[in-house]
Amino acid sequence: MKAKKLLLISLIVFSVTLFFGSVDLGGSVEFNLNFEFPEEEDSNFYSNFNKADLYFKFFGDGLRGEFNLNKDSYDNKLRVSSSEFTFNLNNVDLTTYWNRKSVSTDDWLKIVNNEKVGEINGIKVYSDLDKFGKLNFYAVDKNGYFFNLLHYRLPEFAKINTSILYLKDYKNMRTPKYNELMGFDFDIGIFEAIKPYGEVVFSYQQDIREASYNIDNNYLLFGGVRGKVGDFSYNFNTTYIADKFYKGYSPDSLEENIFLDTSYKNVRLTNKLELNFGEDNYIDRLRTNLYINNFELYVSPDFEGSFSDFNLDGSEMSVTYSHNLSIPFFTWYKISLYKQGWEDDWTDIKHYKPFRIYLEGNYKALGFSGNMKYIFGNPVSDEFFQAFGELYYIDVSRNFNKFSVMGKLQYIQGIVEKRFTAYAEVGYNLPNGNIKFYVGDGDFEKTLQFERQIGVTTTFYF
Amino acid sequence: MRKKYLYVLLGFSLLFVLSGCMMNLLGITLDPGIYLGYSKNNNVPDIEDQLTYDESLGLYKITINASDLTYSEIDEEGTKYYLSYYKIFHVKDDGNVVSSSIPIWKDIVEANNIETITIYADTKKMKDGKAVGVGDDTKLLQDWYFAGDWGGKPTWEEDAVKFQEEDGILIAKVQKDFNAGDTFEYKIKPSDNWRPWSMIFNAEIYSRDSSNAVYTLKSDTDELTVHFDPKISFVWFVESEVN
């Protein structure tokens, strides 16, 4: 039964390729099949084909689109998991979405974030009204919520750029809560030396039964000034977020801070003070980066509330240097040293607070090229190996005529544990596409130990 | 000029060769036993960091002071979370078994005014490089959600099943007509919105980018009960019998 399904998938790939090939469209079809070797012996052979994905992309006159077909893990049915089609009509683009994360705005703060809005079904109308500005309008369904967003960028007038945006979502009378967001941003570019810019946003959640329209403390202010005088340039801004500002659709990185960036020729200095504004301002930490050519210095003092509560143990510092080389074998290298806090006694490295030594290099020899890395630290990484140890990494790749080969290895030595992983792939270029076989999982940050899997990916262009 | 490059090359290779045995040079050795590596001992355990066997529980355990923990700032695309990682080292003659790093979430420790934390290990369940068989009691004080795609509308983003506590074990029930051999993917979320991502559990490790766990049904059933014991990071399923 399941063998037939695989045959069916292949048949669909073939016929769709044929169809798009015959109607004068350009595009590509990508097909991936992955097989994982089971840990338990009694598991079903076909269920280990845990991925079967098809990606179609095409473009033609006034039309472009893409959609994915996936084998559903639950019942093995092939489904269109997401799609996006755009139709161009003179000055208007009409886009339809199915299960896509695609709602976002391009104001200063990018206040509506596609990750936060999530997957939607619906349409977007984009129109370039030339002398009357540009308009983006979304009318979509978001998990049963009717979600509307209008972003209108006014025509530039005397080097003044402005836009307004309005968002509203609503479900039904049974869930009477709705969200509303209104924003305005500006950029005044009249004088090269002083360019003020900023944004004001109101965002709140309302109950339709009360509808008090109380917008106290639902606002955000962002503003600053940037400019350039000769070789000197600067950028200064502040973000203030009132207590009840609704952040449901805004990027998670939206936080209160004071930021100053200055640069002169090859020297650049950035300072970011992270804090919470209030009656008693809570000062969290300062992050200072100094860049001089290939050299970078990072200093981050930790303040637990105020400048007088400076905490040395939580403070961080790092120095990084990278350089291109024109010698045999090595073509580039990077050295970085990181330390958190200070040690009373520097003799026993085993008991240091967090530290890291990082070396990286690119090499090229005998037609092979690649990258290697060495990290020694405690922890080795804040993300993938949060313990004391050392990491070795090397990759190598080479092209032979129509073949391309790539392989990589990683070994981590902890105090008593060892973690080893590898990945290899061989690709072959066809006249209008390519085919690739692989072994293992190439995402080493995701899996520190070798994944017993093989797969094949084919791509055809038409 | 060329000599300068030669020195750089030599220096670089020397560093590689010398540092190649850095961990061996440090000569960290542990006698057979079960150890806790955490922020207080800078991830290098000593005799006093050994777990002891609790017969009534059938588990090894160690109790530490919450005030001894230091937290790392984990930046998840702009939002900062404070997590303190620990590891259990099971050192034995026939091959060491070391768990993956397991996070303790500062917000939970502070919200519950926790003074001591007990860390547990079930050596029979422990797997090298995985969190399975190792956990702590702070994980019972936060909400966990069972999210996945078992047919119908996937519950990854919305309608994930919230675990309910029953005698120290977390329980989530999925009602649906399953057939033997059906498979589905799932993950356990540390909050309704997945945050902190670094605490997402896939029945093997706590990580922000691990792959989904897969469960294969053994029988025809209309109710699947998911059991999650966060004090040893262990997940198992019970399929109710259909009359």
| Assembly category | heterodimer
What is the overall shape of chain B?
globular
The arrangement of helices and strands of chain B along the chain is HHEEEEEEEHEEEEEEEEEE
Beta-strand content estimate of chain B:
35-45%
Distance between the termini of chain B: 86 Å
Spans of at least 5 consecutive residues with low confidence of chain A: none
Largest sheet of chain B: 5 strands, antiparallel
Order of helices and strands of chain A: HEEEEEHEEEEEEEEEEEEEEEEEEEEE
Care to describe what's here?
The complex is a heterodimer of chains A (462) and B (243). By secondary structure, chain A is mainly beta. In chain A, 5% of the residues lie in helices and 60% in strands. Among the domains of chain A are: 1-89, no CATH class; 106-252, no CATH class. Chain A has two helices and 26 strands. Chain A is globular, with a radius of gyration of 27 Å. Chain A starts with a helix and ends with a strand. In chain B, the strands form four sheets. In chain B, strands 1, 4, 5, 6 and 7 form a five-stranded antiparallel beta sheet that branches. A four-stranded antiparallel beta sheet of chain B has the order 2-3-8-9, with no helix packed on it. The N and C termini of chain B lie far apart (86 Å). Chain B has two domains: 29-140, no CATH class; 145-239, Immunoglobulins (Immunoglobulin-like, Sandwich), CATH 2.60.40. Chain B has helices at 2-19, 22-26, 106-111; strands at 33-37, 52-54, 59-65, 72-76, 79-91, 97-98, 102-105, 116-121, 134-136, 145-149, 161-162, 164-166, 169-178, 183-189, 213-216, 221-229, 234-239. The chains are: A mainly beta (462), B mainly beta (243).
Summarize the structure.
The complex is a heterodimer of chains A (462) and B (243). Chain A is mainly β and 462 residues long. Chain A has helices at 2-22, 114-117, and strands at 26-36, 51-60, 63-71, 78-89, 92-100, 120-128, 134-142, 145-153, 160-170, 177-188, 195-207, 219-229, 232-241, 257-264, 267-276, 282-292, 295-305, 310-324, 329-340, 355-365, 368-378, 389-400, 403-413, 418-430, 433-439, 453-461.
